[in-house]
Specification:
There is one protein chain. It is built from 13 helices and 20 strands. By secondary structure, it is α/β, with parallel strands linked by helices. The protein folds into two domains: 4-177, Immunoglobulin-like (Sandwich); 195-448, Alpha/Beta hydrolase fold, catalytic domain (Rossmann fold), CATH 3.40.50.1820. Strands 11-12-14-13-15-16-19-20 form an eight-stranded mixed β-sheet, sandwiched between helices. Strands 3, 4, 7, 8, 9 and 10 form a six-stranded antiparallel β-sheet that branches. It is globular and about 80 Å long.
Length: 450
């Protein structure tokens, strides 16, 4: 152990273990979770301490390497039930962590082929995971299917399956935020709020239906000016309490950081639809620009100019947003890309709809390899790209490419093909909504700023 407090208390434990245990508990409680010790270079030695565990616990956090990063804690010398793992962390990091009773192996590529496999893994992982009891700052888990974490479900009156409930707070993610983490003043309710409505969008072409959460700025009315529109895919994630996109819209609008706009959160049609609709699917792209946009314009005062249409998303929906901008520049003028899965492209072996959507050919990064030259007839879309520095894990079904490396190559390829990259940001975060909510605000200011 390199932390000075842990070293001192381990020495004390040689003569008075009870006092050492008490002082360690008080030190961790005062630190509100992990102990932090600044290093000569300005970064921090972060000591994750788990107390009163009879069995060896583990830590799960994106600060560790790997796609599903976990590591066992080591015993604190001399103090029974106290365990610790220490990591050197950049002073501007904001991320999450959990303690685990055991480490579960990630199912790998089969989790993408069969959503049931992924849901089963997520349930198992949250059964063995828990928040840091000494850290009061927690966030609800951000997963593809939050309802899958609820055990058991609430029985329905008619004897049916019932409705799943939110996982208990002790199963939430704990937050680690170091002193230079980016300031984020936009995630709070304010008095001057826009109007939020919910609508359904039915697609005959896709054969499904989905919710739309629509934000209009204060004072907007049917006779008002035509406004730009922001389409955010994975809309239910942007609406949840980790992000609360309408709060961000309200705050940015009230502060005059952005022009008035209309924000549309485009929800997923089902638990699995994003797996087939988002990976460079031309039919989904056509539905967005040829069906959804006209329907929105029939109801709202939305500009008819392609330059005033911005599409955004994260991970798979970030891939879809980039694909929309590149292949429908006649209708899309801006892309807000958050940790986009531009590693996508290598077709895996097997059969079924999800396997068919796993790639186009025998190599990863299909979109990067197939960027069309920037159009000359219409203004080329502008791109704002963001990826987390913690997203450096090798992706086995992308020949070992990482999210970070593939986004770097994508940004370079865009510029080489004549597109304007308004900014490419490698942010101090990971593949999570805490990172993306900050990036969302920054991207909106860059693309819709006054």
């Amino acid at each position: 152990m390199k932390n000075a407090i842990l070293q001192e208390l381990s020495r004390l434990a040689e003569r008075d273990e009870q006092t050492a245990h008490h002082r360690l508990t008080e030190a961790v409680r005062a630190a509100r979770g992990p102990l932090r010790q600044q290093q000569p270079d300005g970064d921090y030695l972060v000591s994750f301490v788990a107390l009163d565990h009879t069995e060896r616990p583990a830590l799960r956090t994106e600060l560790l390497p790997g796609l599903e990063p976990s590591a066992w804690l080591d015993p604190v010398p001399g103090i029974a039930g106290a365990w610790c793992v220490e990591l050197v962390v950049r002073r501007d990091i904001r991320t999450t962590y959990q303690f685990q009773d055991r480490i579960l192996p990630f199912p790998g590529a089969e989790a993408l082929d069969d959503p049931a496999v992924l849901q089963r893994y997520v349930r198992q992982r949250y059964r063995v995971s828990h928040a840091d009891p000494m850290n009061p700052d927690r966030r609800p888990p951000a997963v593809i299917d939050p309802a899958a974490l609820a055990e058991p479900t609430t029985p329905a009156p008619d004897g049916g399956a019932g409705e799943a409930v939110q996982p208990p707070i002790e199963k939430w993610d704990s937050l680690l935020e170091l002193p230079d983490a980016p300031a984020f003043p936009w995630h709070r309710p304010i008095a001057q709020r826009g109007t939020v409505t919910r609508r359904r969008f039915d697609s005959a072409r896709l054969g499904n239906s989905r919710d739309l959460t629509i934000w209009t700025p204060p004072g907007h009315h049917a006779a008002g000016p035509q406004l730009p529109v922001l389409l955010l895919l994975d809309g239910e994630a942007f609406a949840d309490e980790n992000v609360r996109a309408p709060w961000i819209f309200d705050a940015l609008h009230a502060a005059g950081k952005v022009r008035p706009f209309i924000g549309v959160l485009v929800h997923n049609a089902s638990e699995t639809s994003r797996m087939t609709e988002y990976p460079c699917n031309p039919e989904f792209a056509d539905v967005v620009v040829d069906d959804l946009l006209p329907e929105l314009r029939a109801r709202y005062r939305i500009s008819s100019e392609a330059a005033d249409v911005i599409v955004g998303g994260f991970s798979y929906s970030g891939l879809a947003a980039n694909h929309l901008g590149l292949f429908r520049p006649d209708r899309i003028g801006g892309v807000l890309s958050l940790s986009a899965s531009v590693w996508w492209g290598k077709r895996r072996e097997g059969t079924g709809e999800l396997v068919a959507a796993s790639g186009r050919d025998d190599a990863p990064e299909w979109l990067t390899r197939n960027i069309p030259a920037a159009p000359k007839v219409v203004p080329a879309p502008r791109f704002w790209l963001d990826v987390g520095i913690l997203e450096d894990a090798s992706i086995p079904y992308a020949d070992g490419a990482s999210m970070l490396d593939s986004n770097r190559r994508f940004s370079d390829a865009l510029q080489a093909n004549g597109y304007r990259v308004v900014d490419y940001v490698e942010a101090p975060g990971g593949h999570d909504l805490l990172h993306w909510r900050v990036a969302l605000a920054d991207g909106l200011i860059a693309l819709l700023g006054r």
